[in-house]
Design brief:
The complex is a heterodimer. Chain A has helices spanning 14-24, 68-82; strands spanning 2-9, 30-36, 43-47, 50-54, 57-67, 90-97. Chain A is α+β, with helices and mostly antiparallel strands. In chain A, α1 (14-24) runs antiparallel to α2 (68-82). The radius of gyration of chain A is 17 Å and the shape is elongated. The model of chain A has no long low-confidence stretch (mean pLDDT 91). Helices cover 65% and strands 0% of the residues of chain B. Chain B has helices spanning 2-12, 26-36, 41-88, 94-121, 153-171, 181-204, 226-244, 259-277, 286-314, 319-333, 342-367, 375-393, 420-450, 457-462, 464-469. Chain B is globular. Chain B starts with a helix and ends in a 9-residue tail after the last helix. The chains are: A alpha+beta, B mainly alpha.
Chain lengths: 113, 478
Amino acid sequence: MMTKIEAIIQPGKLEALKTALIELGAQGMTIFEVRGHGRQKGHTEVYRGQEYVVDLLPKIKVELVVPDHLAEATVQAIVRTTATGKIGDGKIFLSNINDAVRIRNQERGTSAL
Amino acid sequence: MLTEQSCVVATAVRPIRTSKQSAISPLRRLYPFGLLLIPALARATDLESVDAAAKAAQSAGDNAWMLTSAALVLMMTGPGLALFYGGLVRKKNVLATMMQSFVLMAVVTVLWAVVGYSFSFGEGTSYIGGLRYLFLSGVDGVPNADYAATIPHQTFMVYQLMFAIITPALITGAFGERMKFKAMLLFMVLWSLLVYFPMAHMVWGKGGLLNAFLGGRFPCFDFAGGTVVHVTSGVSALVCALYLGKRLGYPSGMKPHSVVISFIGACLLWVGWFGFNAGSALGASSLATSAFVATHFAAATAALGWLLTEWIKVGKPSVLGGISGSVAGLVAITPASGFVKPMPAMLIGFLAGVFCYFMVTTVKKKFGYDDSLDAFGVHGAGGTLGAILTGVFATNAVNNALRDSSGNPLPLGLVDGHAGQVLNQLIATAIAWGLAIVGTLIILKICDVLLGLRVTPEHEIEGLDLALHGEEGYIMEA
């Protein structure tokens, strides 16, 4: 009945994604500053001739839980706002959520979102 | 004629013209006519007062520049060097690194007042000064004509103090991120006593072995401290790096935590260096201007030299490379600054930029020593290069203070046809290397036995900021 959407995106795309999600009616989101890599390998930095390979690059992870019927539209919004077509654009993971609780008044399920 | 002289008096003697009076105040217009009425007797007195007024004006000008220079040289240590070095370490060691520079501003100052100035500039043997200025006795407002005839002796003393502060601070770049604080304090006190004060005396002190202007046996040209400051500190840094061993995990994971901080520090060093080099003229003279110009031009070409080399070798010109290059050029021009013309200065700078680039990249890698912040690669190498090139490019067209018995300026360096000066420079540089190596080894051994030099591996991993000082440089949750 609810879907958790975890999207790992390029840091520079966060603002556009946030705007799109709010327009879509997302009730909230949580973001993390993370580091990682997929098929995109890192880069090399050189300080006074000393090379450092940076293989974990800074990314943003956006996490939000939406009612099932909004999941596909949300995924489309993420793809639309963050895709450049190049390696390193990121990934989206979807999973089912059993229940949710609003701590303030103990509402349950989709009404807690 | 008399009227003209009187006018000079009217402008030169300060009490007559206060800031509130305009340039055409009635008092000043009347003053020359008043003197015209005084008989010829007044003329002699008048000439004397002109002379005294001119001297007072020169003293005031020189003193203003020298106090400014002293402040500029202090600024090189804190914040200049503290920021330059602080940015190059990992963030867990930023405070400890800055503290090493800062605490020397306090420790060396006290040491200087008690014995340092006397050991450096008091008359003594060829190797070390005597005890006449102990506790700064006799160091007051009266100029010491041996060193600087137009500024208070105290100004000269405090200006030289700033050099005694920055020199040991430069060494801290070699034992970055792993030295015990108390061991560093003991090391620096002993190093000042055994290496710096004797070297300063030999090159700059009256009767020093290498003093070119005050009766040295091997006359060495070192305008602002190529051998005294940069060779001694740079070579001692290498000895420290070798003796202490590498940082845990070296060379991986040792990225500078903030090139931004280092950038600010390096630019402050560049500006402060005008006090260091142009101030070494010990007055607001045209020689000071010449040294100022040489200093600036050398820094510029050195930055370009490093950047170009890096661009060709690595593919990208880096900010850290640019600022490192400028510092290398400033180091190399230091001994030459008061003896060379602008074009040789630019050549010296460029060569230093390229040479020091290879020293901190290729040579350091080949030998594998962990000179953490390249105190040797920049100061030792650049200082040695500059000291030798001073013997090549020094010319009496810039500095004619050295004269023969009939008052004609003597040739200075190779470009003046005095090839032997290169040898003198080599001797002085070799003495600085020798003194630095032997002195530093002895001092390290003493500190090692008494206190131990390195922090524990646990403290090294935790970071010196927390382990030694109980603080953190960056508190993100605050």
